[in-house]
Amino acid sequence: MNDRIEFLAAHTGWMVQSDFDGTISVLDVTDTLLTRFGMPGWVELEEQWERGEIGSRECMKGQVALLDMSEDELRAHLDTIEIDPGFAGFVDTARAHGIQVQVVSDGIGYAIRHVLQRHGLGHLDVVANRLVQVDGRRWRLESPWASARCQRASGNCKCERLAEQQGLHGRVLYVGDSTSDFCVSHKADFVLAKYKLIAHCEQHGIAHAPFETFVEATGLLEKVALGLEVLA
Predict the structure, then answer these.
(1) Stated pTM of the model
(2) Which of 4, 96, 167, 177 falls 20 to 30 Å from 71 in CA-CA distance?
């Protein structure tokens, strides 16, 4: 790293928060667990959430209570979950610029940490819902990061997590893909968007850059980290 890049890294004031399911991971991990291990009733909860009758925290809590699996089965399933092959390089590039990467998810922290560990990324900070084993095959979800002020009634209020990091670092580059990222995208300093989040950012005039893979996202990160904020 040359002197110019070291100077810029020390003065960027940026950090990165990234969603996990469908953004870092190829598939939504919770959906795959429910499809394989979910007892009847989880689809109805999903439909209630989609109609806006319940918040995502209530939906997820009810769905996790319907999972029927041992911990060995859970771990074996998580061993099949793949992540974007460019994500490790993205993390390395961020670190080279002195930028922290934090995974912020309304999903299941146990699953996220297991998958990241398997891909050599167990050092990353993960903020997500907590999975608790009730007995041999039953589980419950706890949401220590919930907020009564959360507009989405999420288990993890991403807007509050973003505000915390803005207070610590100055600016947050948010990376996401879908509806759980809509609210927080309005508050981020810049957004790297894929899938449904692209159209949302375009519709609302949110400063963003679209991407499909983390190889693309790495190049965009470098432009932001080096102060070349000409992406919007």
Answers:
(1) 0.92
(2) 177
